């Protein structure tokens, strides 16, 4: 796994992605070009698991901004990372409803199992751990977000099973859990959202 | 402890209200409910068609008469807000959907976005027509990836079918949507911070006035509403203002998506007529608490908690009643707090949230909430607090009320104040004995 943190290559990220760039810029009115800063940061973050200084400079260049302006936006948000997160970026919600359902214990468990603390990525670049705030899934607490995917009602045994699965690179499809008026049988898969961050290319 | 868990002594009344049926949530959870074909097969886009045949001012009037109040937290009358837009003067105008849903205890919008994205698109078309905005912006929180993908696909479908575009639904109204995602910052839910975030600026709130209707996105006239508000507009147009106004209580009309989390048998989202009681939500629908409870938070973590009692449980969950009892309806996200949870620890969790989410722009919030308040809680929970500390804490939150730049500081101060009001003895117990009355326990299901 040691090759999973390649130094950013010198090739500009968007150089061979003109279509993507056009699509993103085209979403916003001409005078609102700057609105593209967040989506461009997203594209880089998703592909490279972080946004390096070089990418910040590149986005600034594209939008006609100073790098510090882009950096200023980037640092405001919890989702863009300066350093690479793991192939499996584990985000544990510790806010009240999740905490009442054992999220603090889940956080301790993950720290111990992965030998990581909040904000760290392991040496192999496989796992990273981040504590996050309410994910809007309080009715199906506790919640563990893996990359883009929510796993809900995560019990200890389920958490262990998920970790094992990730170690085997076999993360299962999450099930749709709604609770309340619209409880589903729990077997309806969520299509197309599973996969390690960066799996759609860019890295390696 | 027997008063914590008890059977519902009163009959369910809300859902037998002859005027009520599942509306906003009628299709959530149904197979393929997110697709255009499903939506159309269930009468989709007929309300928008009807609205486009009305005068825009008539649409605004209809929503005003319906009594619909904003479902994003503050409960501002939606039709009145729409009428604040300045006269059409050729400048671009925007309708914005606030889909940043991040207030702890709130999770209703997510399922609407994921399972019924066309309902929202239709609501935005109706609002867009009413205020004569030709561009709609949906600002969806970054973590809602599945919702984002569903929305993206739904917008694509709507464009392909000519529902969105230069001739929306074959009319001469041009309307299209921009989907924009956040990146993990609660403050982006505050409407002016959201606009800065959309514009690619740091998401600090803006000074008001000017209000969004005067100077919103890119300084242009803008109206912003919550997901649920916009979805409700669809049904108001479809069935008429009178239908909506016939449900609910004096100052709170229509249906509402209530949410319940914490230790109850069936947590989740439940649609009820406005003014249903906590008892109906928590017991009749959610199956009651699974262990004795001592408090409930009525509408998301910023709303002051109410002590668990028969009197509280029988309160109607509407804007006026909550205000009268020193709290707020907020998002309608009810959180049940069990007896055995240390209340100081629970409040520390809430404070930690607001501390983390403070944008740092103004001093009372940056110094008070982001810095000192969590430190005071840590000191207390470590068993090192003093009675003077309690006085300082109470003073501090009192001084934060209304003195910060945006409502986030109040959102943190209010629940702290309520906890002192109702559970000061738990704070004092920590000071007197150096440990919590309710020690940490295992909560995680094996
Ligand atoms: C700190 C803060 C966070 C907020 N977060 C949200 C949110 O996530 N979603 C939302 O709809 N409204 C949120 N609001 C309220 C919005 O500012 C705004 O009032 C609302 O979107 C208006 O829509 P409505 O009138 O339809 O309720 C928040 C307000 C504050 C002060
Ligand atoms: S009250 Fe807090 S969140 Fe609001 S502007 Fe001030 S620092 Fe920012
Ligand atoms: S508290 Fe964890 S999802 Fe809301």
Summarize the structure in words.
The complex is a heterodimer of chains A (204) and B (446). With 204 residues, chain A is an alpha+beta fold. Chain A is built from 7 helices and 4 strands; from the N terminus they run ααααβααβββα. Chain A is 34% helix and 9% strand. In chain A, strands 2-1-3-4 form a 4-stranded mixed beta sheet, covered by helices on one side. In chain A, a hairpin with a 2-residue loop joins β3 and β4. In chain A, α2 packs antiparallel against α3 (53-63). Chain A is globular, with a radius of gyration of 18 Å. The model of chain A is unreliable at 185-204 (pLDDT under 50). Chain B is α/β, with parallel strands linked by helices. Chain B has 3 domains: 36-245, Rossmann fold; 255-338, Ubiquitin-like (UB roll) (Roll); 345-444, Up-down Bundle (de novo design (two linked rop proteins)). Chain B is 42% helix and 12% strand. Chain B is globular and about 70 Å long. The two termini of chain B are 25 Å apart. Residues 1-12 of chain B have low confidence and may be disordered. Chains A and B meet through α2, α5 and α6 of A and α5, α7, β3, β7 and β8 of B. The complex binds flavin mononucleotide, iron/sulfur cluster and FE2/S2 (inorganic) cluster. Iron/sulfur cluster (SF4) binds at residues 187, 205, 358-362, 365-366, 404-406, 408-409 of chain B.
């Amino acid at each position: 796994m040691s090759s999973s943190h390649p130094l950013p290559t010198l090739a500009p990220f968007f150089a061979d992605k003109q279509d993507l760039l056009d699509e993103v810029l085209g979403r916003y009115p001409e005078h609102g070009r700057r609105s593209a800063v967040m989506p461009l940061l997203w594209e880089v973050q998703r592909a490279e698991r972080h946004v390096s200084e070089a990418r910040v400079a590149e986005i600034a260049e594209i939008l006609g901004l100073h790098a510090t302006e882009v950096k200023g936006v980037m640092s405001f948000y919890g989702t863009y990372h300066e350093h690479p997160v793991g192939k499996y970026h584990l985000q544990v919600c510790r806010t009240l409803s999740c905490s009442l359902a054992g999220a603090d214990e889940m956080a301790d468990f993950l720290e111990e199992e992965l030998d990581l603390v909040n904000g760290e990525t392991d040496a192999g670049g496989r796992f990273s751990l981040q504590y996050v705030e309410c994910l809007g899934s309080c009715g199906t607490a506790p919640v563990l977000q893996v990359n883009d995917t929510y796993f809900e009602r995560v019990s200890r045994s389920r958490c262990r099973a998920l970790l094992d699965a990730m170690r085997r690179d076999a993360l299962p499809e999450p099930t749709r859990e709604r609770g309340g008026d619209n409880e589903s049988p729990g077997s309806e898969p969520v299509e197309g959202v599973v996969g390690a961050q960066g799996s759609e290319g860019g890295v390696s | 402890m027997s008063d914590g868990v008890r059977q519902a002594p009163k009959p369910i009344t809300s859902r037998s209200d002859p005027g009520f049926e599942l509306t906003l949530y009628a299709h959530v959870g149904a197979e393929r409910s997110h697709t255009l074909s499903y939506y159309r097969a269930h009468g989709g886009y007929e309300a928008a068609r009807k609205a486009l045949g009305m005068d825009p001012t008539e649409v605004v009037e209809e929503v005003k008469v319906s009594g619909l109040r904003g479902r994003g937290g503050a409960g501002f009358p939606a039709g009145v807000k729409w009428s604040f837009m300045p006269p059409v003067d050729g400048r671009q105008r925007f309708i914005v959907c606030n889909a940043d849903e991040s207030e702890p205890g709130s999770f209703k919008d997510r399922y609407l976005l994921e399972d019924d994205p066309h309902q929202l698109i239709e609501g935005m078309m109706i609002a867009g027509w009413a205020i004569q905005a030709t561009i709609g912006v949906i600002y969806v929180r970054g973590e809602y990836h599945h919702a984002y993908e569903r929305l993206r696909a739904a917008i694509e479908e709507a464009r392909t079918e000519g529902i969105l575009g230069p001739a929306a639904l074959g009319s001469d109204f041009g309307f299209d949507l921009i989907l924009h995602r956040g990146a993990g910052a609660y403050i982006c839910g505050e409407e002016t911070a959201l606009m800065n975030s959309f514009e690619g600026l740091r998401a600090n709130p803006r000074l008001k006035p000017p209000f969004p209707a005067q100077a919103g996105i890119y300084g242009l006239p803008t109206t912003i509403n919550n997901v649920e508000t916009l979805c409700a507009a669809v049904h108001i147009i479809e069935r008429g203002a009178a239908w909506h106004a016939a449900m609910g209580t004096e100052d709170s009309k229509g249906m509402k998506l209530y949410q319940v989390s914490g230790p109850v048998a069936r947590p989740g989202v439940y649609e009820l007529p406005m003014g249903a009681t906590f008892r109906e939500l928590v017991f009749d629908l959610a199956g009651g608490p699974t262990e004795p409870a001592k408090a409930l938070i009525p509408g998301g973590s910023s709303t002051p908690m109410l002590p668990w009692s028969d009197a509280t449980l029988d309160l109607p969950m509407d804007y006026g009643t909550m205000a009268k009892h020193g709290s707020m309806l907020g998002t309608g996200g009810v959180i049940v707090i069990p007896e055995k949870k240390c209340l100081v620890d629970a409040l520390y969790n809430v404070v930690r949230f607001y501390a983390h989410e403070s944008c740092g722009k103004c001093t009372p919030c940056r110094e008070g909430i982001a810095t000192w308040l969590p430190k005071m809680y840590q000191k207390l929970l470590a068993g090192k607090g003093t009675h003077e500390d309690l006085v300082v804490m109470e003073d501090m939150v009192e001084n934060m009320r209304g003195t910060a730049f945006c409502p986030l500081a109040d959102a943190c101060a209010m629940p702290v104040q309520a906890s002192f009001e109702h559970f000061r003895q738990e704070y004092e117990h920590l000071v007197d004995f150096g440990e919590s009355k309710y020690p940490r326990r295992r909560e995680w299901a094996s």
